[in-house]
Amino acid sequence: MRKVNKIYSNGEFITPHGTEVFTLINPATNNVIGELTLADETDTRVAIAAAKDAFRLFSLTTVQQRIQYLEKLRDAVQNREQDFIDTMIEEYGGTYRFSTLSNRYTGSWFDSMIETLRHFEFEKTINTSRVRLQPVGVVGIITPWNASNSSVCSKVATAIAAGCTVVIKPSELSGLQTQVLMEAFHDAGLPKGVINVVTGLGTVVGTELTDNPDVAKISFTGSTAVGKLIAKKAADSMKRVTLELGGKSPNIILDDADLAQAVPMAVYGAYMNNGQACIAPTRLLVPESKLEEVNAIAKAVAGQIVVGPPLQERTDVGPMVSVRQFEKVQGYIESGLQEGATLLTGGTGKPAGLEAGNFVKPTIFTNVRNDMRIAREEIFGPVLAIIPYKTDEEAIAIANDTPYGLAAYISTSNPDRAQYVAERIDAGRVCINGFSHDPMVPFGGFKQSGIGREYGAFGLEEYLETKAILK
User: Fold this and answer.
1) Taking the CB of residue 232, how many other CB atoms lie within 10 A of it?
2) Would the CA dihedral through 417, 245, 439, 95 be positive or negative?
3) Which of 17, 108, 260, 428 has the highest count of CB atoms within 10 angstroms of its CB?
């Protein structure tokens, strides 16, 4: 059993002032694999002070200096790629394929921000005045358990590019992954206090980051409920916030789409990252006239989904991250049954032979109404809701009839129809005929899916203040 009993503050691994111990569990077996000593408010204040002190000089660095720091971070992270993969599989339950793919590109967050920096204008002239963008200050970074390494690195890359210093609060469920990250960041050799890592509870460390007046900005990825609390508390000290929150993404299959291609892609997409993905297309909108055909294809595809130990290369869906998350997903499946949706496949309980872990049967409901809980609330598990529609306009209306607006997907053989529908969907990112990703393109949500944008130049601007110098 491994023990994570250090935090990273002011360039050193130190024993936290906090004494509470959090047990780390392998979700595939529910066996104890480690213990994490949680940081407290005192540890957080010490880290904030270190970041504040480091900011005085780091904020004055040149673009070229920051590019060099980003290159060092990239190399240090890439050197630990296999460790990231191994710990993500063991601690989080990410499948071998997903964990490998995810961590293979973790270092690329630094590359995309390097490329952004090379073309970014920090100063412009308007009439006779100078408009200058300068780093906002100390940034509190709060990240989730479903994409710990990627989320931390993307935010750190942006903060460093802007000339900010950071205090990171990863999820306590990601203690082993955080240990590897801390070691990689230390190996990069940045000035003391620029990067600090304080792992603790959101109600303790997260609250201190949000309340502390020396933190200028919070960058948070997580649930909408927590994001709202952060936004409310941040207002007391007028902190800037970037909030990447929940989603209930629609996937619209238009009537001219190739169902043999679009439906399997929709099913696998809904189950990405074990269904624990904020961008997962968990509402599948299909033409009413083709519902039976879609149902048949979807059921056949679900029957081929392999649920099993995440270390096996052939596994498609691994366990939920915790018993609590497993029980939450079970509750939603029961809700779908009670509200009258048709269970196409899956259901409550665990797959045979996997009773020890937090495994969920890949589940598909059809004949779902958009007012059902399974269509309106973020489940964060392998549960897909198929919703029929009559016309393109009704599909657009159903897609937008949600408190969320993070991502959306469209399948069609007609590029003009795709653009027409995409322009009318209220979502921060819309993908056409697939699951595209571009780290230079902004990412964030409409409505209750968040505030602000991440990635590329749009993300960098969120870490900068605008100053006009008139003469």
Assistant:
1) 10
2) negative
3) 428
The token pair at 448 is: 């209750």
336, amino acid identity = G
Ordered strands of the 363-366 beta sheet:
342-345, 363-366, 383-389, 283-287, 250-253, 407-411, 429-432
| 461, HSE (Cβ side, Cα atoms, 13 Å) | 13
Closest CA to 288 of 394, 364, 418: 394
Using DSSP, state whether 402 is helix, strand or coil. Answer: coil
- Angle at CA of residue 364, ends 363 and 366, nearest 5°: 155
Other CB atoms within a 10 A radius of the CB of residue 437 amount to 12
Low-confidence spans in the chain with pLDDT less than 70: none
pLDDT score, position 360? 98
Closest residue by Cα to residue 320 from 379, 247, 385: 379
Structure tokens at 452: 């602000």
User: Which two structure tokens, joined as six digits, stand for 39?
Assistant: 């940081």
> Could you give the CA distance from residue 270 to residue 281 in angstroms, rounded to a whole number?
5
> Among all residues, which ones are annotated catalytic?
244, 278
Closest CA to 220 of 111, 139, 138: 139
Opening angle at CA 11, ends 10 and 15, nearest 5: 75
Among the listed residues 68, 7, 67, 91, the one whose alpha carbon sits nearest the alpha carbon of residue 41: 7
Distance between CA atoms of residues 182 and 194, nearest Å = 13
Q: What is the DSSP letter of 442?
A: -
Q: What is the pLDDT of residue 105?
A: 83
